[in-house]
Each structure stands twice: as C-alpha cells, then as structure tokens.
User: Fold this.
Amino acid sequence: MQYALYVLRRLLTLIPVLVGITFIVFLLLKLIPGDPAVTLLGVHATPKAVAELHQQMGLDKPLYQQYLTFLGHLLQGNLGQSYQYRGVSVSSLVFSNLAPTVWLIVVGTVFAVAITVPLAMISANRPGSVTDGAVRAIPLAGIGLPSFWVGIMLILLLGLKVKVLPVSGFGTSFGGHVQHIILPALTIALAQLPILIRSLRASMLEVLGSDYIVTAKAKGLSRSRVMFGHALRNAGVASITVLGVNLAYLVGSTVAVEKVFALNGVGFQMYNAILGRDLPVVQAITLIFAVFVVTVNLLTDLAHAALDPRVRLG
Amino acid sequence: MTEHDERTRAMAAYRISRRSMLRTGMLATGALGVTSLLSACGSSTSSSATAGASPSGSLSTSAPAGKPGGTVTIVRNEDAQGFDKTMVFSNGSIWIYVNLWETMTSSAADGRSVEPWIAESWKQSQDKLTWTFKIKEGVKFGDGSPMTSEDIKFTLDEAGSTKGGWEFINSAIKQVTAPDPTTLVIETKYAWAPLLADLACPNNGIVPKDYGGRSKADFYNSPVGTGPFLWGAWKKGTSTTLKKNPHYWRKDSAGSQLPYLDEVVWSVVADDNTRNVQVQGGQAQINENPPFSTLSQLESSGKVDVTLFPSTRTDYILMNQKVKYFQDQNVRLAVSYAIDRASLIKAILFGHGTPANSLFMPTVPFYDKTTPGQQYDMDKAKAALAASAYPKGFSTVWSAMSGDSTDAAIAQVLQASLKELGITMTIKNVDPSALHAQETDQQYEIAHSYWTMDIADPDELVQFAVLPEGGGHSFDTGYLSKKAQNLARQAEREFDTTKRQQLYTQLQKVLAESAFLPPLWYQPMPYATAKSVQGFFVKPTGLYDMGVVSLNA
Assistant:
C-alpha cells in the first residue's frame, strides 16, 4: 500500500515535468534563426509562397496559440510533417528508425553491467591489491577518450585488421543485428565503466565493513554467498541510481556513436535533422529522448524504493 | 574538413546551385581545361583514371564486357529527399533517379556537348523555332510496356507545368506534339540555343503517359522508367535500392545485355571515416564523398582507387553593390587581387584544385582559358585600391556560414590580405538559412558562395549572374551591366557555335574585368571505389550511369 502511494506520487510529479519539456522543446526551436517555410520551399521561395505556407503551417498565429496547437497534435500522436522528406509524417520517420537505437541502449547497458559487476567484485574483494589498482586505473582512461574515437579504433582493430566483426551498419536479420551491435554497444559501455565500477566498488567496500556482513561471515557462510547474497545485493542499490543517471548520458552519446557506426537510428536521424533544419524531426526526437530519460529516472526511483523501503518513507 | 563541413557545404550547394540549372548548346570549340585540371590534382591520387573509364554509357565506347551479376553499395553522406523529379532539388535524389529515368538527350562525358539518347536524331526548322525529333524504337518501361512519343509529350508537359519546381528549365517550350509513336515535335517561344541541353536535364526524365494510370503521388512513391534499373525500396534515413531492369534496351559493345549489376544500394553513412572504412573493408564498393583530407591516405591503403572527376563546382566571392565601397570597380579589383587562391586550394582542397580565371568553369562549353581573371598580386591590389575612391581603406563585415570550414578558411586568408591594404574586415558567423536570407535580400556586405551545373550550357549560370530576368540579382550582388546583358542575350539566341563562342569569350572578359564576382578555384569531385568496380564514371554534372558498372571479383 505504502509502495503504491509512492508510485502514484512519483507519477503525478511527472506531469509538470513533461509539460515543461514540451514547452522548452517548442520554445528552443522557435529561438533558432531561420524560417521553416523558407527552408521548406528552398531556393524558389517567393514572398507569396512563404506567406501561404506560413498560413498553412499556422506560423502566422501568436506563439501561445502555436504552442497549444502543438500540444493538441502531440496528444493525438501527431508530430507533424518532415521538412526534408516532403509529405512524410515525422512519427513514421522516427519510429521506423527506433530499432537500432533501442538495440544500442539495451545491449550497451547489458555490456556495461556485465563488465562492471565482476570487475568491481574482484576489486572490492582485495582492496589495495595490484588487481584492485589495475581495475580502478585502466577504465579511467575511458573517461578521457571520446566515444567516437574509441568507436573508430574498435572499427579499425576488430573490423579492418582482425576482421571478426562488420565495420558498421545494422545488418538485415536478427543474427546480423547481433553481429553489428557488438562494437557500438561496447563503445557505449566502455564510456560508462569507470563511473559504474568505482561506484559499485565503493558501495561494496562500505557494505563489506558493516555489521551484518561480519555476522554473515561469523555464521560461517561461504565467501561467495557473503559477496553475492549479502554484499552485492545491498551495494547494488546505490549503483542502480548511478546506472540510471548514466543512461541519460548514454542516450546523448548514441548520436555520436550511431554516426560513427552508420547505425542509422534516431540518434543519427537527430544529427541529420539538425544539419538539414528539419525542425519537426529534431523536436520529435528531443521529446522522445527527454521522455526516455524521465522514464528511466522514474524506474530507477521505483526500483530503488522497491529494494530499499527507507526511500518510500522519505 | 569534417563531414559536418561537407554537409554544410552540400546544403549550400543545394541552396544555390539548383537555382542555377543548366542549359547546353552544341559542341563547344576551344581547348578543354580538363587535362590541365587533372594534372594539377596532385600526384598522390590516380587522377588519370578518368581518361580510361567508360564515359557514362556512351554507346560508341568500346568498354570491355563486364561480368553480369552482383550488388554495388554506394556510401554517401546524405539521404535522398524524395523522388518527384519535377520538384526535388537534392543531388542525393537526382544521382539515384537518373538510373531509373532516361532523357531524350544526354550530356557528353566531358560535359561540353549533348549527345542523342532516347531521341536518335533531330532537325530544326528554317526559323529555328520548331524541332522534330526521331525517337528510338523498341524502348520499354521497366514494367515491359512500350515507350512512345506520347509518353515524352506527357513528360515534357508535366515537367513544364509544375509550380515551385524545375518547370523553369522548360520555360522556352511553347508546345509539344506527338504526330506518331516515333516522332516528337517541340515548338519554342523564341530561338533557343540551349534546348537540347534542357532536354538532358534530369527533370525531363521520361515517365509513362498518365503515370501508367496511377496517381502522381503513388507513381513517385514507386516510380517506373526506361532506365537500366527498377525501383526497389527507399528506407528513409538509411538506404535506397534499385534493381536490374530486365527490359532495358541498351547492350554493350560486345552485345551483352546491360545493366550488368543485379542491384545498386545507396547507403547513408554520415561519418567520413566510416565511409572510407566501409569501402576498405569491402562492406561498400563506392564512396561518394571521401573528404579531400583523406585522399592520399585512402590511395596508399592499396585497397581502393581514388578518382578525381572534373566537376563544375566553382567558388566565388560575393560583394554586395548596395554597399558603397563595392560599387567602386577599383575596390572590387583590389579585393580580387588580394585573394591568395593557391593558399586556399592548399588549405581547403589539399592541393586538389586550380585557381579560377573566369566565371565559367572549364567543364562547360564556351569556357575561355584566356579570360583575364585576377590572380593573387598584392602590388596590383594596392595600386587598385589607391586608384579607388577609398585609397585609405574602410571597414566591412564578412558573413560566414557558421560551421562551414571552407567559408571560415577563405575569410581568414582574405582578412589578412585586406588588412595589408588597410581594409578592416570583421568576420560574423551566420546560420545557413539566415545567411541565405541575408544574401537574397542583399543585406550582407561580403560573403562566399559557389555554383554547380546540372547540364552543360553556361546560359543558366549567365542568367543568374548577369540577366535581371534570371532573378538572381547577379548572384545577389546587384551588379548591372548593359554590355554584359547584351552579350548574354545574343548568345542565348545564337546557334552558330563559333559565333556563340566569340560572344561568350567577350562576356567572360567583361565580367572578369569588372571583378563583380571574383572566382576562386575549380575543383574535382573525388570518388573512392573498390578495386573490383569496373566502368564507374562521373560526368562533370555529377551524374553517373550504373548501367555500365560491373564487378569483376
């Protein structure tokens, strides 16, 4: 019951956040110089044609009316028409390109977690050892290296020199997708590792020093049981929050990584739309990313609350 | 250069060049600058390859028979924007759809003349107003239905009647009639030398009458033409696929059926490095836009061929004559002399270009290589400024397209030279669409722009640069010269090639001496192709015929 109330409270606070996002997205694009009608008509724009198109697109109305129309359309799932691709709806464009991005984020996160947990455990198991130092130091380099560069290096090494994986693209079958997603997902995961490993290691050390671990050890539980059954479960709670925050960054980095790997998902589409002044597409993808980040934050909070009852009481 | 710059520049090309269209006259006289252009393209790349390549499906060439079958993937930095050929201006679309639709005439491999294509031959009436074309027999659309002159009449009527698209190309056409299936008659409103070139313009690609009974929108979503390839699929943002047309009419010199390839895929890969790596790794066979900075490295990898095809791209400096300083011819001359063209070519094209001497480019008919355009000479620049009304210099503002490294490089090089003259030039970054508006409204002072041609007659460039009715406000500079206008109008109506050349030679001289639009350089189009690709050739207009391309591995 208490948990259900907590969920409800969190959901309600989302409403102003989402409205705020739509407002900012709408306003940002209004602030960008350049006239969408001129962009749409290209070089043959005459003042008359521009005025007619303004009327058609509702650009001659006051700003608040434009915003309300935008919101109204949004509620009906109508994201408008693309400027670059004439006569094509933004929603069909964006949703047809969603798959590579979802793959990238999901597989990238799985890789990040799969690498983080064992390394952090090894590290925390013998703090101060050489292994611990190495685990802490090496991924740190990942922070300094931009993901597009790491991506290019991975392509050169595993795609061109060793030739075990395709250099880029998304493939056409499920098996193809799996092959193609490995390098970009690894690129994304590598960028997250330093923070994830350090945070999990720190929580582990903290937990390992607590009374209930001493008790668990005193009970004669096996070392692995203590580590996985007791320590990791508790230390993981804090790391989930870190992972959630990181996911927001990860979404942003898809733009660069998708471009490097010619993984033509929505991140790449965003890049393309920005260059082509395809404002409705930019708007739609910004919204989708924002909603994704908000949703991940919500899920993180909910997961945290489920794992740690103290949060719900706060 | 980053791909971002490439992209911004591509956008700029779209912005200006397409207004530019084309029109071509008969075969031009005069030495062609292509050889010298190529030899100037640096030793690190195999620029000579163009000479041996099969000139774009020309029937007369004796290209060796290609191996049938296979798929060629072409990687490029931009997606198509639609396939309504009467409306779409993007090269990303045009370069694909010219493999789907064919035109009555076709520009020659060197871009300097027009050849018969679907029209086998033609004759002109005494008054030069009526053209009668003999149409090739046995040509079929991709769905197997025969093509007749009725289809061409429908095509030209359609292409000339849209609004806000390419209809201006056909503006000289008064009426088209189809007296019998293999005869087409075109009447023009006035004597019009560029007609044959207009017919080669991609917007005049032949579609079936009444779109084969479909609606216009439906037709252009999955079009059919007489070209070597059939419509496959367009995955927006990702790729466009065309498939072999089994009904295609052309055979190679050995009598083998064209096209050789089963399929061509144009794949959007925005990242410069990734495109290069895909061709090196065998995932793609042709890279449409390798950046100049990577050419020598690509070549030395030994896995790909780099070819520099001559293009029509020419870069210019715009000086707005609403600004009082730039009304002074001596000031314009001073600026033009102060441009270090060689340094710009080195910095921007990594040496792969030649300094420009004329408003015309060597890849269009009637270019005159003796045109006295200004070259870098600070002494002459100082003398010109001293002779002007502003010998002590002045201050001006350069409007640079934000994010465009070419623009930035030109601005910085020019800024340094002008400072020496006492002219203070500040650089202001402007968003691309805002810059476009500034230029068309003549609200800028000094800026950079460029031009590309789609077919090979100088007339459209001349209209845009000289004639008030062209609507270009002389490249948005406001330059008006009665002398230049008279020469341009005479040339449009002159059918005698020698006389037309004389007119254009004079015109180029007048324009160069006025320095109203100092040309900067001529540059090639680099392409990277896998060693297995045979017969790939790009015309100066940027069009390439995949119908004659094959894979040998």
User: Anything to note?
Assistant: Chain A has a mean pLDDT of 84. DSSP finds 15 helices and no strands in chain A.
